[in-house]
Amino acid sequence: MRPTLAAQALRDTAVEYLTTTFALAEPATQEALTDFLTDPADGLFRGPYLRIRRPFRSAPGGWERHLDWWQDGFRPYAHQAEAFARLTTKDGHAPRPTLVTTGTGSGKTESFLVPVIDHCRRERAAGRAGVKAVLLYPMNALAGDQAGRLGRLLDEDPRLAEVTAGLYIGEASARGTASPYGRVMVDRSEIRRNPPDILITNYKMLDLLLQRQLDAPLWADADLAYVVIDEFHTYDGAQGTDVAMLLRRLGSVAGAAEEGRPLGSVCPVATSATLGESGPETDPQTAGAGGARAMLDVASRVFGTYFPDDAVIGEDRREPGAS
Q1: Cα–Cα distance between 13 and 8 in angstroms, integer?
Q2: Rounded CA gap, 227 and 124, in Å?
């Protein structure tokens, strides 16, 4: 597919639809409408535009001290290494609340997934089973993408032989279903029988998992260290309230809740590419009402855990001319 030809075809189809919908009897008026819609300066369409952004800065040396595991040949960006430092549990380190606000294509997933896998690998080596991380996605498609990525990691790296994962969503989870994601379980009975280290789901299915007696074994030996909410900006209004209540039930059912701390010591993580692409507003010191500080306040209320200003992991791009 050629993008320019596809874009032109889309434009032609849209103009044809509009001129047909608003059919005008007089040919001159009809032609004027078409000219208005297709005018290159003031018409319906703009562009094409080319967006050029500076590349992300690579992490300086020393980031390895925060992890026992990472992919072979992996070289993180600076913002990813910053997230590793906040989220690691190596040497008894307590992970800290984190909001990853970097833009699309910046490796947000690796920012939390690498320390989560590293933690699960270390816990498994110590003989501790049970759910250790819950990853919440707003759409099944995103949850499936994450399961595919995680499945490839588990299949390809023998160092992760003991780490387990499960995908529990309506369309993929069913009794007797073979997993299309390698070692990521999708069979519900198997997930209940062998609770995975990493549980990938959405908030509606998690609601069911916390209510049904049939799913109680899933939480019996849970030792939650992380709760991750992807696309956090989508949970506004009533849906944000629903998720906040859901997280409080999760903390209670998993035995993590403490007085005044619904999730206890569980580390909350949120990601939002939309906030990251807002430019300088990712700096909590300069953000306006719609910037990072507002998002941190929302995250604090939803998770029931305070997110300080330094919880924001923003973009770190190379300066022009830097090598």
Answers
A1: 9
A2: 18
Each residue's pLDDT tens digit, 1-25:
677 787 788 888 888 888 888 878 8
Percent of the chain with pLDDT over 90: 59
Yes or no: say if 229 and 263 are a contact pair by the CB < 8 Å rule: no
Strands laid side by side in the 98-100 sheet: 184-185, 165-168, 198-201, 133-136, 226-229, 267-271, 98-100, 312-313
**pLDDT tens by residue, 266-276:** 999 999 877 55
Q: How many helices (H) and strands (E) does the chain have?
A: 11, 8
Integer CA distances (angstroms), 141 to 74, 86, 138, 144, in order: 26, 28, 9, 5
If we measure between CA atoms, which residue out of 70, 65, 87 comes closest to residue 227? 87
Whole-number mean pLDDT of the chain? 87
Token couple for 297: 């306040």
The label of the residue with tokens 């980031």 reads: 63
Residues 181, 167: Cα–Cα separation, whole Å: 9
CA distance 279 to 292: 11
| Statement: residue 280 has pLDDT above 50 | no
* Closest of 108, 179, 97 to residue 137, by C-alpha: 108
Encode 102-125: b = buried (16+ Cβ within 10 Å), e = exposed.
bbeebbbbbbbbbbbbbbbbbbbe
Average pLDDT over residues 151-155: 95
Distance of alpha carbon 162 from alpha carbon 149, whole angstroms: 17
The tokens for 224 are 């939650």
Strands (E), 78-211: 98-100, 133-136, 165-168, 184-185, 198-201
Asked if 55 contacts 102 with a C-beta cutoff of 8 angstroms, the reply is no
Q: Rounded mean pLDDT of 205-221?
A: 94
